[in-house]
């Protein structure tokens, strides 16, 4: 599949065909029905909840109905549309959110021309005559694009024809950064040169084509050693050496580094049961007949897990004996969580299983009471996937959120009794590859600089600038 291409979801690609009847799994978790051509049309689980699927003449999924139906009221329906070449063109959620894909045929393969999600965010794709992705562009305000070059018949970056040589990312209208790739004569990736300050990473390989060394831009070199089954047995670097041992089934049974040795035991189903830690302590894992974790035990105590007939967690007991319980709707979406102190969180979801409201109560009364809306556009009648409004019934405040064409948050305002009491606006202030910063300004005069870099970044402190009122 081409990079950036949406999956052809909804297609039934199972190798089996012409099965008939009803089949139950060993734990009685459900039954299935098909129509004699290998396509499952109805599944009833161990809680007697039924989900159904309809297919078109080409065996693509036409509609999928969830388990929220009751009596004569059907469940929620997700609708799929395919073109004559069996590519998924539309996906419509039960609440109306719609994804639209347009396709084209290049070099005999079907590839997406563009894709517009339920929030109206459009991604466009271009290709060369061989079907390699040449560009991926996000349309609209705030959108960017990435373009690629490839080896021709006479390679320009080593390796073979069709291998990627460069990736160019347009950061702003005046700034584009390039990552370049170089290959050896066997087609192995030899060098990746990223924009400053990331620098260059180099790779070497052994006679079997396995990665032997990796040297990053800091000059730190890692050396890999393998066994005759291509499993890593040693990783040596400037700072440490890590060694690995495996059993006959391929499970990792021992790991040794500068902190000591950790050993692992497994049951006949290759599941971890005991972990022997560096300090001599142990952790234990036990499983139910259905394969769920029954309990976990470490030096701090034992945690017990209870599951329902369809393998959803219903109760958790911590080492102190405190119990948290969980309830679900017919689609297995968690709707109620009851905490040990008696606090209860209830989540009401819409037909697309998104939170519609969240309410938290305790013996002190209502702690949290939030409502969410996902509609946008004229009259907020277009269903999207992002939260567009939130209402806090405890404080009486309402928030409305806006996003740019790339789907990033851009503006929010908070109102109470019809008057704006606060607002926030974000803009990008840095485009360095390893440091993407945004300013968030509040109408109350607060400024926050949010930074994300190659190491995870962080959020700078709030400050009150002199020019806050003019932004």
UniProtKB/TrEMBL annotation:
Transmembrane segments: none annotated. Residues 9-25, 46-55 have a biased composition (Basic and acidic residues). Residues 1-55 are annotated as: Disordered. The keyword Signal does not apply. Keywords: Repeat. Pfam families: RHS_repeat, TEN_YD-shell. The keyword NADP does not apply. This is Teneurin-like YD-shell domain-containing protein. Residues 167-267 form the Teneurin-like YD-shell domain.
